């Protein structure tokens, strides 16, 4: 695979071939941003890097556009190319001339200017010529009058705009404003950033009307500050968030180096601690009905029922459906059997428990229109109906007021199972609410945990020794060391200093040395 004359025909590429000839070697585009030398054309502004319209130049021959250099000098007051102080009064207006084709050229020799032309300007007039014309008609014959206006000038008035043999000043990578990222935003650019319609040049009447109406009706969204939740000793899960693994295996995720426990939902923390039953009384026009709620087994359904009772949601609502030997249904404020919503709005999921069954009289269960469609409607059974198990969530039972339930069953109904006499829930009374007790308990536990953490932090800080460094009279190295430690009798330093006055004996080696042949 070798490509050289004296190279062996190897079946692999050497590192030199890979890095310099082909393979990993990539050609550098001279116009790319990463190139070490990027040439600026002579007809471009050194600040905006675009074609100039009203050219100006400084004493060193750097050309700028009027609309670009004036606001830059007002803000930075420095030369955009060199970084030296510069004022607008030191700039010279240039007079470029164009031929019939609209190309810049020398007004004397009529030669077109290119990137390889030697171009100069006269300070006194600002006219631009080719260096060849100035050299042949001014410098050699020593004619110190401008070629177009006959205005006198000196050799110091000749400003070189472009010299093909010295192109260092055209290197964009060395410009001061490019290195320091100094930019001036004009009014159009600022308006384009703030006004979405700034870039729309041509719009019809209908679009214009829609935009005007949108500007009147548009309301900017409020900025919301997202506060990151931190797990505490109560809601911290036994597993992590998985951010470390996700950041390690996926390039989309931000890298994480510390494991953080996942935060359990507040309802999960609350529901796990509930061990009591809830008790509610429904006061009807036929008498009271006492209900026992299985808050320890179906906490979400029971919390929904208790919260609705607290809000007075069931007050003055009717039992709209009653079927003898089956059940009686209520909880719909519209009285049609199609209304109602949960205390959180909308519906919530089912909670089926195998130890709860529609067995016996007085079972309290949720009415629904399908899976996970529980809202506010409920029913109480007159008899066992096990065929409803796994379809409706059981969340309580009747523990008092069976005679009221019997009175409800005795009332007749029409052909749509509506009671002919009004059965009304006048009010709901809550006797036991385990959710309030749990919320209070969590507040106390969190306060105790916070106090314990602060106490532990104070103890840890107190255990850190706070030794103040005391400077002795001596200065320099060892000024914080007590000099008494050097004067102790038997100290290693004192022993060393006392023995240093006695000359040390040279150690003799017991090994044999040959020497020379003098003893022979």
Automatic annotation (TrEMBL):
Record localization: Nucleus
PROSITE patterns per record: CSA_PPIASE_1, CSA_PPIASE_2, U_BOX
CDD domains given in the database record: cyclophilin_RING, RING-Ubox_PPIL2
InterPro entries (alphabetical): Cyclophilin-like_dom_sf, Cyclophilin-type_PPIase_CS, Cyclophilin-type_PPIase_dom, Cyclophilin_A-like, PPIL2_U-box_dom, Ubox_domain, Znf_RING/FYVE/PHD
Main localization of the protein described in the UniProt heading: nucleus
Function: Has a ubiquitin-protein ligase activity acting as an E3 ubiquitin protein ligase or as an ubiquitin-ubiquitin ligase promoting elongation of ubiquitin chains on substrates. By mediating 'Lys-48'-linked polyubiquitination of proteins could target them for proteasomal degradation. May also function as a chaperone, playing a role in transport to the cell membrane of BSG/Basigin for instance. Probable inactive PPIase with no peptidyl-prolyl cis-trans isomerase activity. As a component of the minor spliceosome, involved in the splicing of U12-type introns in pre-mRNAs.
Self-association and partners: Component of the minor spliceosome, which splices U12-type introns. Within this complex, interacts with PRPF8/PRP8, EFTUD2/SNU114 and PLRG1. Interacts with isoform 2 of BSG. Interacts (via the PPIase cyclophilin-type domain) with CRNKL1; they may form a trimeric complex with HSP90.
Name of protein: RING-type E3 ubiquitin-protein ligase PPIL2
Lineage start: Eukaryota, Metazoa, Ecdysozoa, Arthropoda, Crustacea
